[in-house]
Task: inverse folding
């Protein structure tokens, strides 16, 4: 619920309600059973990252002795920490109930997740052999009692806290405590041999529990028990100002320091003995500002994202076949096609191959002189990086702006940076104080004695792995009015104090906020004059209070506003006198909605932009982002069509409202599941 009739939703609380929508997917019977388990994993993984970053930030505010009300939507930081913990405990309880329900349903499908106490004789033999061969060599076990200093627990690693009661002739029993780190290099779900039509799985934690006697053979104990714990650490990067270090060295050092960041969350099995819990909390110096969460028998449920498919296609989503972009062939020259008209790639409905084809062709084309590209996140075995290296080997001048501070991908980007640099790629490491989040590429080709530009602008990363599950737009164009300005963005990277002016692109940090403000003002003026006035926006998160206020102003002026926001939304729609002309929904489904579209009626001549930027303070003021206008009328129609399909969703859309209850949208219209309908839309375009 919204507190104190506030006009904003706190961003941390809104994020938790977003994660609740992810949790809803795990309970939705329209979702295949194993996919539901994987949504539980996504819910848990999201929560880990939330505590590493957002909870840690609020905790820092408290420890600095500040209230944080100005940046937390009017709520005191200390009160917010308590509220977050209470919500998370409730959500964790709900997730455990859902997990038990799914496990019961899996049994109805002949899939059994069994505990160490439920093994039959043949399974016991398999488990013992598996433990000795696969698990024991990787096991890290620490006896705690005699240590003068408690070991530093790894961030979000899972541990079994072991208590042994040692045999003694004295009346007072000696207790020994130990920690076993659950190995990360082994699948969390160990598939046991099938028995007839029945499949069996034991979780690695339980397999280790079964083999505790093998681990602690040197102790003569009367009883032994093991309960899971985990700790989450502050993941903010503290970058030092040592001028003698390179930027790569500073980021590397900061990433390394993250491993010993302050703890912000301690999760434990609620059935753990009070004596064991007290021992651990005292030794680990768990503080009042840390979130202490009683949980179930298993933690790190993010591992359910990798739950084995067991060959059961009936319990998984049908895989779609990515479609070609109509009129754009990967057989001939992609540059020749783009020279004639703009094309839009919408992954995962369209194949990501066009981005790869563009770069491969540029790498080999003798007439291509330069390639410039921004990199935020790459796949683990990136064909993008391979194509850029190939281009260098073919004599092209390749410039890569690589963002070393892409959260949780810092180490991967450092490794790619070193690899690219070693191959002769010119690297730019960004602008001091700004993350580069734009998704742009520009090539220059010599044609008829002059330079012709080609390029693409995207809403998402150039990553062939995430392109299969993230929805993103990529515009391929040879429009020089756009590409000249893309070149200005690259100039800004290389000459960091040179602020350029843009007529077409909307570029952060200097212009995005004001550009969108002007577009909204235009809608307000048109509404007051009785002209057609609407705003349609689709993005990931909406937290900028200034932009919220501007949409409230537009709503009061009579502008009709439709918002599709996947994640955080600090705006409250549908409030009389404030936002009655604003409707907002969130769609959570098979794919992760990642597109960003901004459409303005403009008195009947609709203006449409795609962008890498959400309306968050960081995207507007502290990052380099690029919004690109759409000038091709066919593509404008396509974007509006796909927006409207998503807007009509009445199966996976949840409504933002004052209650913040994640209610599914209900309409009397025929049932529409927008992601499935979007694929049908593009399938039909193939034949039109």
Result:
């Amino acid at each position: 619920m919204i507190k104190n009739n506030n006009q904003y939703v706190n961003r941390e609380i809104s994020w938790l309600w977003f994660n609740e929508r992810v949790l809803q997917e795990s309970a939705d019977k329209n979702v295949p059973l194993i996919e539901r388990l994987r949504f539980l994993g996504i819910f848990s993984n999201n929560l880990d990252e939330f505590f590493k970053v957002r909870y840690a930030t609020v905790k820092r505010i408290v420890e600095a002795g500040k209230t944080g009300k100005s940046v937390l939507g009017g709520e005191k930081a200390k009160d917010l920490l308590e509220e977050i913990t209470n919500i998370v405990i409730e959500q964790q309880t709900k997730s455990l109930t859902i997990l038990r329900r799914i496990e019961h349903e899996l049994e109805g499908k002949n899939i059994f997740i069994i505990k160490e106490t439920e093994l039959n004789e043949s399974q016991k033999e398999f488990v013992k052999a598996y433990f000795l061969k696969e698990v024991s060599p990787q096991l890290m076990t620490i006896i705690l009692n005699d240590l003068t200093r408690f070991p530093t627990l790894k961030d979000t690693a899972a541990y079994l806290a072991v208590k042994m009661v040692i045999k003694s002739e004295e009346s007072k029993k000696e207790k020994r405590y130990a920690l076993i780190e659950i190995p990360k290099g082994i699948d969390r779900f160990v598939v046991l041999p099938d028995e007839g039509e029945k499949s069996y799985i034991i979780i690695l934690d339980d397999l280790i529990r079964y083999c505790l006697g093998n681990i602690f053979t040197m102790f003569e104990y009367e009883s032994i028990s093991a309960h899971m714990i985990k700790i989450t650490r502050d993941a903010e990067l503290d970058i030092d100002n040592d001028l003698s270090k390179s930027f790569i060295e500073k980021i590397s050092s900061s990433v390394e320091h993250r491993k010993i960041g302050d703890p912000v969350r301690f999760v434990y099995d609620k059935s753990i003995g009070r004596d064991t819990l007290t021992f651990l909390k005292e030794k680990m110096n768990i503080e009042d500002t840390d979130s202490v969460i009683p949980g179930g028998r298993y933690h790190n449920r993010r591992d359910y994202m990798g739950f084995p498919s067991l060959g059961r296609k009936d319990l998984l989503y049908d895989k779609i076949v990515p479609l070609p972009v109509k009129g754009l062939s990967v057989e001939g020259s992609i540059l020749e096609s783009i020279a004639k008209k703009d094309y839009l790639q919408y992954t995962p409905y369209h194949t990501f191959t066009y981005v790869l084809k563009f770069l491969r062709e540029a790498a080999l084309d003798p007439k291509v002189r330069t390639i410039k590209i921004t990199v935020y996140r790459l796949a683990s075995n990136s064909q993008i990086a391979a194509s850029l290296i190939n281009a260098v080997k073919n004599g092209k001048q390749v410039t890569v702006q690589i963002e070393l501070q892409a959260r949780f991908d810092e180490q991967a980007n450092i490794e790619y940076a070193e690899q690219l640099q070693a191959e002769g790629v010119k690297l730019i490491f960004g602008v001091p104080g700004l993350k580069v989040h734009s998704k742009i590429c520009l090539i220059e080709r010599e044609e008829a004695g002059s330079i012709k530009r080609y390029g693409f602008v995207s809403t998402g990363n150039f990553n062939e792995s995430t392109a299969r599950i993230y929805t993103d737009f990529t515009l391929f164009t040879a429009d020089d009015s756009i590409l000249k300005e893309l070149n200005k963005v690259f100039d800004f990277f290389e000459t960091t104090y040179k602020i350029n002016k843009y007529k077409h692109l909307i570029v952060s940090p200097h212009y995005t906020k004001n550009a969108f403000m002007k577009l909204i003002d235009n809608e307000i003026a048109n509404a007051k004059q009785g002209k057609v006035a609407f705003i349609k926006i689709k993005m990931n998160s909406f937290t900028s209070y200034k932009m919220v206020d501007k949409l409230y102003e537009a709503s009061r002026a009579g502008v009709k506003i439709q918002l599709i926001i996947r994640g955080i939304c600090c705006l409250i729609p549908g409030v009389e006198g404030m936002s009655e002309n604003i409707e907002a929904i969130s769609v959570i489904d098979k794919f992760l909605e990642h597109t960003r579209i901004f459409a303005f009626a403009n008195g009947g001549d609709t203006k449409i932009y795609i962008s890498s930027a959400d309306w968050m303070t960081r995207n507007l003021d502290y990052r380099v982002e690029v919004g690109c206008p759409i000038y091709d009328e066919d593509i404008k129609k396509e974007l509006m069509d796909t927006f409207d399909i998503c807007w009509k969703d009445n199966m996976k859309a949840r409504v933002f409202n004052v209650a913040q209850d994640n209610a599914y949208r209900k309409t009397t219209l025929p049932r529409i599941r927008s992601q499935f309908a979007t694929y049908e839309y593009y399938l039909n375009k193939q034949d039109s």
